[in-house]
Amino acid sequence: MDADVYVLISMLPLVVALNRLIRMAEDASYIARLDADDVIADAKAFQAAVRYLDAYPSVQLVYGALEGFDPGNPPGANVIFRRSLWSELGGYDESLSHQEATDFDLRARAMYPRSVQRLEVNWYDYRRRPGSMSADVAAILKEKGLDKRPEGK
Asked: What is the mean pLDDT of the chain?
């Protein structure tokens, strides 16, 4: 990546930077999200996920069997999706500062109900650490308007 582009991207909010980078990857068939606290733990499993997308053109998004997460809800970075899906959904929602990946997943499932697949392989290692964006649950709930209890509760 060009040094000027790197400086520009690093100064932007995460969701804005993600959208800009994906726009720049206009010839890419697939997008694999990997955040700063994540690593590809198994390259063979990652390649198997890409081959799955190659073999099943109707599948839009795949995610791996990541230990400690609800099998029905992929963690944000443990996904590989078609770039065309990103275009159809209008990218990540830049009004969100947290949980943009969850929002993206929900919109993908709404648009293509049977095209989001969990694979029984795991290519990804999610390193939880204090101070990460997903560690601040209170901020996430506040942003989503879920921090207030209904009256009388």
From this structure: 77
